[in-house]
Amino acid sequence: MTAAAAPDPIRLGLVGSPNAGKTTLFNALTGLRARVGNYPGVTVERREGEAKFAGRSCRLIDLPGTYSLDPLSPDEAIVNQVLEGAVDGVAAPDAVVVVADACSLERSLLLVAQVLNRGLPSCLVLTMMDELAARGGSLDRERLEAALGIPVVGVVGHRGVGLDTLRRLLGHPEQWSRPPVPPPLAIGERAAWADSVCSHVLHQRPGAHALTERLDRILLHPVAGTLVFAVVMVTFFQLIFAWATPLMDAIDAGVAHAGAAARTWLPPGLAADFVADGLVAGVGGVVIFLPQIVLLFGLLYLLEDVGYMARAAFVVDRAMGRIGLEGRAFVALLSSYACAIPGIMATRTVPSPRQRLVTVLVAPLMTCSARLPVYALLIAAFVPATNAWGPLGWQGLTLLGLYLAGAAAAAVVAAVLMRVFGRGVDQAPFTMELPSYRIPSFRLWVGQVGGSAWAFLKRAGTIILLVSMVLWMLLTFPRLAPDPAANPTDAARAALEHSAAGRLGHALEPLIAPLGFDWKIGVGLVASLAAREVIVATLAQVYAVEDEGASLREAVRRDVNPRTGQPVFTPATVASLLVFFVFALQCMSTLAIMRRETNSWRWPAFAFSYLLVLAYGASFVTYRVVGAFTSS
Amino acid sequence: MKSNVNFATRLSDLAPGDQAQVAEMDASDPIARRLQDLGFVTDTRVRVVRRAPLGDPVEYEVRGTRLCLRRSEAARIPVRPEDAGAEAPS
Question: What is the dihedral of CA A386, A388, A390, A392, to 10 degrees?
Fold first, then answer.
């Protein structure tokens, strides 16, 4: 049976201001099947999804949220360019769907006027109709259709109300009425036109949202608000650490079991090693991130959907302005305290591309949870467990100091980078809306979290897996003929020294000796380039100990350099190693996500390099300074 | 405070609770054009809703919607302050 060529899908462009509920509507219409990418030359996200409306195939293009079609930057100009079909590889939409918040009709009409001047078939979707009614506002939809000359549909996006009517409409853009005359564009006349439309449609301005007013009296109060903010942020973290850790331990155990199982099924030898230590460990290295990512995103999206995130940004914006960033960047950096990956993905909420880029570049400096095992090992082994001041112990203080050092470094680097990049007129003015508080839709929330987690798995997952393989090969080849007389741990240590990674460690020794590191630390550093915490397991292998707890601590304490007779881990070396970990970017997943968010390998490469330079320099200085203080 | 034609007053000079009318904006300034697209059109009434705990940004109500601006942006909007007893935006 010959099939007629399927007609091209109808292309529908969604235009609307940032808080209009456009993305919620897009998700509701396309499900979780959206394709995400980038437009050439800019950093704004390109999101398209397919759906069938009224039996016809349609492609929805979620254009970046914008308050005006009069662009101030290349990122904003993309909307115009897509509508004109001027972007390579992106055909112009067949019709435009303007999405506007029903509660801000008087302002939204200013954008509608600009869209109607584009000459494309258009329709208007008014979202949050429920809130309009709840706040005592109203408008006559039919009169609005008549006044604008285009179809108008009212919906409640996050509850699915009105979507069926909308779907029927979207399937037939060729039937949409067109305005006989486009509205005036000059702002004075445009505003007057909007006012006359509003009076014609019997528009009643909604009153203030009662719940929002009551809550904001506390949450935005100078004293109470800041306190609530601090409590929310601390609780945020406590929850992440408390809930993620047992899940991650469970995954660790699961991976170990899987590896052991692989060994029992496969004949002992290279294949078994590859599957158990390369493949299984590699996959485990990806999956282990999931509890943190899911939890972080879950809490982030919850706070955002409820409406609190904008308040947090509002409170902290001025402090962020001191380093050249803004309130919304704070949330991204704060998330990076648990894991930089969701933090970097959260920079999407920052409209300014320069600030978004700088936030992405400094996010790795925030003390992420992968540094904890390294800090824990070194602090437990070398920092005295005595009290420094009252009940505060040296160990706790050191850990706190390292956490604060990360944030301080991020602030300083951000300020410097903004100074360096910020040359040139800044683009759109800082604008932010404080949306009404609302009870979020569970289904929507699950979709948001799932979407982000899946995005991580797809992009970062492949890279982590690849790098784990490469690392496994470096640590395994060339192989040493096993000495039957040696015990297993000594044999493992000898094999490691003989491998490519071991040789790399030796080769690196002259480079890292000024930092106080020997070849064994060198091997650990090579391995940790994939993921920070790997250094603990690698050191355990190098020191040929069975476990990473007490035995490893003892082993590193007792280790003596055969050439000099001095301990390998002097106080200066320990301090230097800690400082190195404060700065260095040792996480393939972070690099992968940076690539995805900045649409090029240039920025991850830059981040890796500048952080390596900082790490080396800071380590060097620390080693000299601490060495001078502690030399006998 | 008697309302008078005072083009030297900027939106950033107002305090929470104050109301004013937007005066003529500088059409050549692209940022001013964006602010107009956001609703700060000449002769439109604007009300200062609240200020952030650290003093910046400030939430305004204009054309029935609320929006936060930083002081540096609000300073670009000349206003004619209104009497305290003037009708609030309904």
Answer: -80
pTM: 0.83
> Tens digits of per-residue pLDDT, A55-74?
899 999 999 899 999 988 88
Amino acid in the structure at residue A24: T
pLDDT of residue B90: 44
Pick the closest to residue A358 from A298, A419, A316 (CA basis).
Answer: A419
pLDDT at residue B58 is higher than 90: yes
Sequence-ordered alpha helix ranges (H) in A337-487: 340-345, 353-362, 371-382, 394-421, 442-476
Taking the CA of residue B17 and the nearest CA in chain A, the distance in Å comes to: 14
Question: Out of B30, B55, B70, whose CB is closest to A72?
Answer: B30
* Alpha-carbon gap: A432 to the closest alpha carbon of chain B (Å): 5
A485 by Cβ neighbours in 10 Å (0-12 / 13-18 / 19+) ranks as exposed
CB within 8 Å of B69: residues ≥ 6 apart: A429, A430, A431, B11, B35, B57, B58, B60
Do the Cβ atoms of A424 and A558 come closer than 8 Å? no
- Minimum mean pLDDT among A100-114, A203-217, A227-241, A596-610: which range? A227-241
Contact (CB, 8 A) for A56 and A23: no
All residues of chain B having their beta carbon less than 8 Å from the beta carbon of residue A110 are: 37, 39
CA distance A101 to A480: 68
Q: How confident is the model at residue A546 (pLDDT cuts 50, 70, 90)?
A: low
- For residue A504 the two structure tokens come to 């790399």
pLDDT at A1 over 50: no
A86 to chain B, any CB pair closer than 8 A? The answer is no
The verdict on a CB contact (< 8 Å) between B34 and A216 is: no
Chain A CB contacts of B41 below 8 Å: 187-188, 191
What gap in Å lies between CA A132 and CA A103, rounded to an integer?
Answer: 5
Q: Exposed, middle or buried by CB within 10 Å (0-12, 13-18, 19+), for A88?
A: exposed
8 Å CB contact of A72 and B69: no
pLDDT score at A4: 56
Which residues, including other chains, have CB under 8 Å from residue A503's CB and lie 6 or more apart? Answer: none
Residue A443 has pLDDT above 90, yes or no: no
Contact at CB, A221 and B53, closer than 8 angstroms? yes
Nearest residue in B to A73, CA atom: B30
B31 touching chain A per CB within 8 A? yes
Please state the ipTM of this predicted complex: 0.88
Least CB–CB distance from B52: residue in A187, A314, A429: A314
pLDDT of A108: 96
d(CA A354, CA B72): 18
Chain B residue at shortest CA distance from A310: B68
Contact check, Cβ <8 Å, B52/A317: yes
Q: What is residue A391's predicted lDDT score, i.e. its pLDDT?
A: 66
Min CA distance, B40 vs chain A (Å)?
10
B38/A67 CB distance under 8 A: yes
- pLDDT the model gives residue A384: 82
Residues of chain A positioned with their CB less than 8 A from the CB of B73: 429-431
> Using CA atoms in the order B23, B27, B33, B38, what is the torsion angle rounded to 10 degrees?
20
More confident residue, A159 or A58: A58
Burial environment of residue A466 by CB neighbours within 10 A (0 to 12, 13 to 18, 19 or more): middle
Fold of domain A10-207: Rossmann fold (3.40.50)
pLDDT computed for residue B84 by the predictor:
58
Cβ-Cβ contacts under 8 Å for A468 (sequence gap 6 or more): A278, A281, A282, A285, A530
Q: Does B36 touch chain A (CB under 8 A)?
A: yes
What does the domain layout of chain A look like in residue ranges?
10-207, 224-248+291-421, 451-631
